[in-house]
Task: inverse folding
């Protein structure tokens, strides 16, 4: 928010009012399955710039092997200015002059010495963007992400996304969502080193920039999402405008983060014509704002019985517009299926890469029932993961997963008086970080995937 035009020469007071009241035409809608926090939960800054300043700078590696820069200036002298985008370590200077609207689009061949960013080698370069009056710096990794048939290609090579979903909630008995670097590092370290993961789904809203920058540094691929969730008002123009604004803000903030490979436009939205038009517009927006990444949405599955046998797939018209298909599936938890039946379930093959964006089962940390393996026991959750992963191995186009969820999190709708008490217990670790047995099942699966088995 620019305040230049309302400033006085002295004695200015900045007052910020926050209204966190859920609204029927909002995003997310009033009813969610996580704790909504109000107030100002992230850092704020008052930024002082020259009269004409660097408003945006997006530096990336294109799929045809060039370092491209898009720089937008703001101010009365934005047009016709010389701009330099320098990567000193590579001896690179991408330069040019802004157009009449104050925008520079320029590129240069990537130097042969360039080290591409990846989870195994999360190389970041110091970037300097300079004009006559302003200077902006960032740390940027260079990599490509694309699909080919049913494969996801990172830097031209197939990759399996070994992930987990994460809410923006720290570890602790009474966790908050005022994420610090230490809190974010603890969560991401549990994914990277604990689970041997290379991927994290940041659900169900844009997480703090602290987290996305740490993902760059630590080497974790990221799914970033806006809260178009469940039953938003798909027929309301204000809701669509709000969602489009959120999406644009999210992309513009994080376009320089090499870790982010997937922009997600929705989670578990029921199929209607209004919804299809709403989400179709968001997908078009992603592709217009960022042609270097992939677009997805967490979809509901379609299940039919054929010859007495369940056949599961994605029968969603939005799939035609997505780069990566994503399914939320809870067979054996929210269905009456016996866990032993999961490995033999048939999934329809897809012509695009598919990921399991969610699957999971609740377990209260420390509740053991080795004989009956009742729901909410650690033994049930462990068996659920074993059987679900066996099912996953048989899906030919499955290219990754982000099970639900890393840690138990606050969820006011979850009020079972014994096992939940205001917590969603699908975490693989407790609120304080105690690992449940299912954690080690998923880790072993990822270790095998990492070894190419």
Result:
């Amino acid at each position: 928010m620019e305040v230049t035009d309302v400033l006085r020469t002295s004695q200015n007071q900045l007052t910020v009012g926050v209204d966190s009241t859920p609204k029927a035409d909002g995003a997310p809608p009033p009813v969610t399955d996580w704790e909504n926090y109000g107030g100002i939960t992230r850092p704020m800054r008052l930024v002082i710039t020259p009269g004409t300043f660097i408003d945006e700078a997006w530096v990336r590696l294109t799929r045809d092997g060039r370092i491209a820069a898009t720089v937008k200036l703001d101010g009365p002298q934005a047009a016709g200015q010389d701009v330099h985008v320098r990567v000193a370590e590579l001896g690179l200077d991408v330069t040019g002059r802004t157009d009449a609207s104050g925008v520079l689009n320029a590129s240069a061949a990537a130097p042969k010495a360039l080290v591409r960013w990846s989870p195994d080698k999360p190389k970041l370069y110091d970037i300097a963007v300079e004009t006559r009056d302003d200077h902006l710096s960032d740390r940027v990794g260079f990599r490509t992400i694309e699909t080919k048939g049913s494969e996801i290609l990172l830097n031209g090579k197939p990759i399996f996304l070994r992930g987990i979903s994460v809410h923006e909630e720290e570890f602790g008995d009474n966790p908050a969502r005022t994420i610090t670097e230490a809190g974010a590092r603890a969560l991401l370290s549990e994914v990277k080193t604990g689970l041997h993961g290379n991927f994290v789904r940041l659900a169900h809203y844009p997480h703090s920039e602290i987290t996305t920058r740490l993902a760059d540094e630590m080497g974790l691929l990221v799914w970033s999402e806006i809260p178009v969730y469940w039953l938003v008002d798909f027929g309301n123009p204000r809701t669509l405008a709000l969602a489009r604004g959120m999406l644009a803000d999210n992309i513009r903030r994080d376009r320089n983060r090499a870790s982010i490979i997937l922009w997600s436009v929705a989670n578990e939205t029921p199929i209607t014509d209004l919804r299809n038009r709403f989400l179709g517009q968001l997908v078009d927006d992603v592709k217009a704002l960022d042609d270097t990444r992939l677009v997805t949405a967490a979809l509901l599955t379609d299940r039919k019985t054929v010859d007495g046998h369940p056949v599961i797939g994605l029968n969603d018209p939005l799939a035609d517009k997505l780069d990566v298909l994503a399914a939320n599936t809870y067979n054996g938890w929210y269905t009456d299926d016996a866990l032993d039946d999961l490995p033999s379930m048939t999934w329809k093959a897809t012509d695009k890469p598919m990921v399991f964006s969610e699957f999971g089962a609740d377990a209260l940390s420390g509740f053991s029932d080795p004989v009956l393996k009742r729901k909410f026991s650690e033994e049930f959750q462990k068996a659920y993961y074993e059987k679900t992963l066996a099912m996953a191995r048989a899906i030919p186009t499955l290219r990754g997963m982000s099970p639900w969820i890393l840690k138990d999190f606050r969820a006011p709708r979850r009020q079972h008086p014994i096992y939940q008490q205001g917590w969603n217990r699908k975490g693989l670790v407790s609120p304080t970080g105690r690992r449940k047995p299912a954690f080690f099942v998923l880790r072993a699966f990822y270790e095998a995937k990492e070894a190419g088995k």
